[in-house]
Amino acid sequence: MEYVVITFLCLGILLYFLLGGADFGAGIIELFTSANNRSKTRKTMYQAIGPVWEANHMWLIIAIVILFVGFPRIYTTMSVYLHIPLLIMLIGIIARGTAFVFRHYDAIKDDMHWLYNRIFRYSSFITPLFLGIIAGSLISGHIDTNAKDFSSAYIYSWLNWFSVSVGLFTVALCGFLAAIYLIGETTEAYDKRRFIKKAEYMNIAAVVFGAMVFIAAQLDNIPLTDWVFKNPVGLSAIVLASLSLILLWYLLIKGKTQVLRILAGFQVTMILLAISYAHFPNFIRLKNGNAISLFEAIGPEKTIYSLGLALLLGSVLILPFLGYLFYKFQKKEE
Amino acid sequence: MDDFLAARSQMALSLGFHIIFSCIGMVMPFFMAVSHYKWLKTNDEVYKNLTKAWSKGVAIFFATGAVSGTMLSFELGLLWPKFMEHAGPIFGMPFSLEGTAFFIEAIALGFFLYGWNKLNKWFHWFTGMVVGVSGLASGILVVAANAWMNSPAGFDFVNGQYLNVDPIQAMFNKAWFSQALHMCLAAFTATGFAVAGVHALMILRNQNKEFHLKAFKIAAVFACIGALLQPLSGDISAKDVAKRQPAKLAAMEALYKTEKPASLLIGGIVNEKDKTVKGAIKIPRALSFLAHGDFEAEVKGLDKIPEDEHPPVAITHYAFQIMVGIGTLLALISLIYFVNLIRKKPLVEKRWLLKLFVLAIPLGYLALEAGWVVTEVGRQPWIIYGVMRTKDAVTPMPGIAYSFYIFSAIYFSLSIVVTFLLYRQIKMVPVLYNDKSIVKTN
Ligand code: HDD
Ligand code: HEM
Ligand code: HEM
């Protein structure tokens, strides 16, 4: 059962990254869209993510519930030492979710929309930034459980070049995912071209920030290059990701949307795999050189058993329903 | 503000905020389903418009409920890491099932809100029902988790270790049934009265009478059934508390000295220093009966409980008075309403009754919040009753006061915006739903 639970945990994180990421990305795209195209982008986006954003968001909750039920020590270590970035991310989630719904359901369209839009765009940027920072901090080895003073315990655990680079990288990936997703959601040739351009820029940004992550890892003595290049799985994942990049650019120019989506998802999955495979099952690396591993922090047997059962049962109930939701609202209205 | 107090206040604030939205999320889908059903059966456009108007309100509330709930699932760790480290695996079962229920709810809501004219109409209706049923299920499940904190079960506590964990047994602890029943009724009562009251106000103002009358009826029937059952369920809860948490019961009743038979105090000013209550109405033997079903029974007072295990008496007592007071009032209103309904008197003529409903708009929620204060403050100083103290569970990070201020500001502004949006929705009813032509969605 522990493998079931761990699989669901990884799946939850991955799907949140892909689906929730595309969702955040849509806001980022809007942030970087020139003013006269914004309202159109907004409309496309609403049709695309309106019906599903709530469900996308659930993956985060699933992941966090698995963490606190099944891996309490990981959950509490994160909560204590990454309190501040978690808090900022939460504020972002609150602001974003409410602004998104408010602006759609406000019965009167007036100046309030200026405010909703502002909040939505900026929080769409900040939330994935801090999500990335948190992810980066977990593996950066800056979390110091023996810290004596406030800054080294609660600030430098996440405020360092490596974590921030991972944060920016995450933002670029989200934007990229969203642009690819939106290409398929619009029927107008002009808009399609706009989103293709956006996808290209975001892809370039991702490559740049990705390089920055590696440089920061070097400076910080994080063995990221070893993880990725000295490990067959990591290496093949990164090679596949790079190869698919070439294919992706080709398809972008051709405008083949369905394949593009799958490919973009594949690419991001490969990147996550490359980064995380080598130190699996270690989930948090600590400053003193130790690590907290999933297997070591796992909860009591009965709990894991019933958690696994609940997850399996849940997915039998949920997945067909969810698939139908995506299917039903994929079909564009004329 | 010291960090411990700030953490407790932040927790209370977040929960108090979330509960309002989650109750609406649990109950409104049922109102909509009734109205939707009537539309499908009678083809009366008013019911269709009503369903749509309500569903827009629900979408606003649902989003707010969802984000504040997400906030909570992190906050448990951010504020109470030591608690979660031990409690997570034990009381986590309801949370993991709740995850499933939420998920289904979110998916079904997607179908419901965006499915007009796209789905088979009965399937569409069914998705609305699914939203309600899974919302109710998740409510019951979270309350089971809270009940575990009041009545820990499913583990052996040996030398500070939590052994032989059994999450299923933990979920079906002794308190879950009485709490879950009372909570579900409370959700229907509070939301029902709030919704009915708003529509009563519009009827009084002579706006879109047909629309608002239909809305009022649906909400009022749910509310009044809930309110009539609430005192009965509250009595079950009280007997339960007497058995399992005598300190809480003593604090609710401000019973400083053990009495046999014990009299019930209504109202009064509590002086925590001298351990006295002034100016309360005393009903002899009533407490013995309410707590143990026997007019002669002994009721344990705070003198039988070690001083360092006393909950804050004044807050618990006042909150209990508020809840019971409002509960009695709402039950009376409900009685009048049903008598009126049975006699088939047209409602519009009874303006005073409608005014009573308007008065009751905030009351249900007030009682609900007060009830939670009774349960949670009455559990102090324990976070897990009899096992772990709240102050041992708090995060070591200093400066929680700032996060408390930030969240107070956020919740405050969210409440304002939500109220404002709702006001606008209601204001737009005449424009959007006046004519009987098909109303455009989105
Ligand atoms: C509309 C709201 C509402 C109304 C009218 C009432 N209650 Fe209540 N009460 C709640 C809403 C509530 C609640 C917020 O839902 C609580 C908090 C925890 C729980 O399980 O329910 C609660 C808790 C609660 C408890 C503590 C349970 C525990 O700690 O386990 C008792 C003893 C009562 N109630 C008793 C009553 C009585 C005797 C009422 C008589 C009229 C009453 N309540 C009306
Ligand atoms: C939604 C309804 C609820 C409300 C309004 C509520 C209210 C409160 C209040 C007022 C406090 C502060 C008590 C004090 O410090 O004196 C508190 C504390 C707390 N509650 Fe609840 N509660 C609710 C449900 C829950 C549930 C379902 C859980 C968890 C499963 C929970 C977990 C906690 C925890 C961990 C604390 C902090 C520790 C403590 O003060 O004991 N509560 N809550
Ligand atoms: C008695 C207390 C509570 C009740 C009755 C309750 C009920 C609900 C309901 C019905 C929803 C659905 C959202 C809606 O319809 O608006 C919801 C949302 C949520 N609640 Fe609570 N809740 C309670 C306390 C808590 C606590 C303590 C937590 C965290 C540990 C929590 C976590 C969540 C989460 C994560 C969501 C969002 C799910 C979504 O996206 O649909 N809730 N809650």
Automatic annotation (TrEMBL), chain A:
Pfam family, one: Cyt_bd_oxida_II
Transmembrane stretches, start-end: 6-32, 53-74, 80-102, 122-143, 155-180, 201-219, 231-252, 259-280, 304-327
Keyword Transcription: no
UniProt entry tagged with the keyword Membrane: yes
Membrane topology: Multi-pass membrane protein
Signal peptide: none
This protein's UniProt keywords: Cell membrane, Membrane, Transmembrane, Transmembrane helix
Location(s) in or outside the cell: Cell membrane
Family designation: Belongs to the cytochrome ubiquinol oxidase subunit 2 family.
Official protein name in the record: Cytochrome D ubiquinol oxidase subunit II
The species this protein was found in: Pedobacter mendelii
